[in-house]
Design brief:
The protein has about 500 residues and is mainly alpha-helical. It has helices at about 20-25, 40-50, 60-65, 95-105, 110-130, 155-175, 190-205, 220-230, 265-275, 280-285, 290, 310-320, 330-335, 345-355, 365-380, 390, 400-405, 415-430, 440-445, 475-480, 480-490; strands spanning about 70, 135, 150-155, 240, 260-265, 340-345.
Length: about 500
């Protein structure tokens, strides 16, 4: 996995005009390419897909909504569950997919670039449909064909399309050659196959309420992928970005002027203390107030969270009194931070364990559950410098992990519901400062862990619950109103509201 960060890429499409040579000479940048080939387009597309689009304070919005942290610069909308309109800007990158594929036609890499384009399309549409529901899919990105007002496909149709595109991507990567222009896997079609199938399994988990729908074939698809297809085998297969000391490749929260504002929530701190989960020492700083009272940074009692749903004035008082743990210094003191993943081996293990418990495939659910925990804990340990200041002298070792797995609260036993909740809890731990909005979507999907809601502070219109979706983009209402209103009427009886249930949640 190469260091990537936010590598500035100059991929410029120049229009050649019949003009004087002097104009062309003085207005052509010699440092930019005049021709975009498949390799350059692939690099650009992969980085756009894998890079988290926000840095600094904005990088933490996902962690505020998922209740990992409270944020002390001021009361923020995401901490108090106010989400509004999203945008479809990620669709813009798909305009380069066809260009990448066209430029590769007739080359030995054509199958590989076609497969890559399908993966990027599938991931992009998957992310968008999870946020709102029905979206433009079959007619999306067709302005060059004269389609300026694309229809909205139903979420069911979108999911069928995504799964079919991933099936075809897997087939083409199997036929293709390792290709140039890949900053994540070095062009390895084998590793791309693993990511494709990982994403397919992830998509299918969001259809767990649709197993009776014969058009979806959820159970048979899941079983086929687990038993027949290539899957990730270690953290080395993660679809992730690594960062470095180079100026434009820093971790998104490195050296942030907002470093003093994020503090830990009880939602994760209290559970990690209950589980005796050593990742807490890597995630958080000890409370200054507890340290002043004599607690040591190696002791569980030194770490304190705050209920992120409390009134902001109450949280502020505790913050001013230095009672609450901040996030670990490694998140803002280390230029390289830790890699940020969108698809991981650990999550794949939890997905397979869930599938086995639900009866979607055969296997040893306990093995995959424990392997997911091992991988998640090793990811944290191996991507943190071996310095006491970042682990507070409590190192995660193989022995520590095995002892953790034997603890009564972690051990994989109990009823079906209890086993599922143990899987979901570990997926929640895994998502701290990671994987975009995935933790929010998982809590929405499973209801576990139950995120704190305070009716006195909740900014969601329904004060007793978390919001369930974003509303459609304002630009869609301005430029594609008839189509988006048709989708809103079809799904939500005309009410484009954050509390409406999309198809996968019904």
């Amino acid at each position: 996995m190469k260091n990537l960060g936010y590598i500035p890429l100059a991929i410029t499409f120049l229009t050649i005009v019949a003009s004087c040579s002097k104009f062309e000479e003085f207005n052509t940048d010699p440092d930019k390419t005049a021709n975009a080939n498949s390799q350059l387009l692939a690099t650009h597309l992969i980085l756009q897909t894998a890079s988290y689009p926000r840095i600094g304070k904005d990088f933490l919005y996902k962690d505020m909504l998922s209740k990992y942290i409270s944020y002390m610069e001021g009361a923020t909308s995401y901490q108090y569950n106010k989400i509004e309109r999203t945008d479809f800007s990620s669709l813009i990158r798909l305009t380069n997919v066809d260009k990448m594929v066209s430029a590769s036609e007739g080359s030995v890499y054509e199958d590989s670039y076609r497969a890559l384009g399908l993966f990027i399309r599938a991931y992009t549409f998957f992310s968008l449909t999870l946020s709102v529901g029905d979206i433009p899919y079959s007619q999306a990105i067709k302005a060059e064909d004269g389609v300026y007002n694309p229809l909205y496909d139903t979420q069911k149709e979108v999911f069928i399309g995504i799964l079919n595109e991933l099936d075809e991507a897997n087939r083409l990567f199997a036929l293709g050659r390792d290709f140039p222009g890949d900053p994540v896997f070095g062009g390895s079609t084998l590793k791309w196959q693993r990511s494709v199938n990982n994403l397919s399994l992830k998509v299918l988990t969001h259809l767990w309420k649709k197993t009776s729908d014969m058009d979806m074939n959820v159970v048979s698809r899941f079983n086929d992928i687990v038993t027949r297809n290539l899957l990730m085998e270690s953290n080395g297969d993660n679809f992730q970005l690594s960062y470095s000391s180079l100026e434009n490749e820093h971790y998104p929260f490195f050296n942030s002027s907002f470093r003093k504002y994020p503090i830990m929530s009880t939602t994760i701190v209290d559970r990690m203390k209950e589980f005796k989960d050593y990742r807490l020492f890597y995630f958080a700083e000890p409370s200054e107030a507890r340290m002043a009272e004599g607690a040591l940074p190696t002791e569980w009692g030194a770490y304190t969270g705050v209920d992120p749903s409390d009134d902001f004035s109450l949280i502020s008082a505790k913050y001013s009194g230095k009672e609450i743990s901040g996030i670990n210094k490694r998140y803002y003191e280390l230029e390289e931070g830790e890699p940020t993943f969108l698809l991981s081996y650990a999550e794949q293990c939890f997905i397979i364990a869930e599938g086995i418990v639900r009866g979607w495939t055969d296997g040893d659910a306990k093995f995959f559950y424990e392997e997911g925990i091992r991988s998640a804990m090793l990811f944290t340990a191996e991507n943190t410098p071996d310095e006491p200041q970042f682990s507070h002298g409590i190192k995660i070792t193989p022995e520590i992990i095995e002892n953790y797995l034997e603890g009564s609260i972690v051990a994989f036993e109990g009823t079906l519901e209890e086993q599922l909740n143990k899987i979901f809890q570990q997926r929640y731990f895994m998502g701290f400062m990671q994987d975009g909005w995935n933790s929010f979507y998982e809590c929405r999907r499973t209801g576990y862990p139950e995120l704190p809601v305070n009716e006195l502070t909740n900014l969601n219109p329904i004060r007793s619950q978390m919001p369930r979706r974003w509303m459609y983009p304002a630009k869609e209402l301005s430029f594609n109103r008839n189509r988006v209103e048709e989708a809103i009427n079809r799904q939500f009886s005309g009410n484009d509201d954050v509390n409406e249930l999309m198809w996968i949640l019904k």
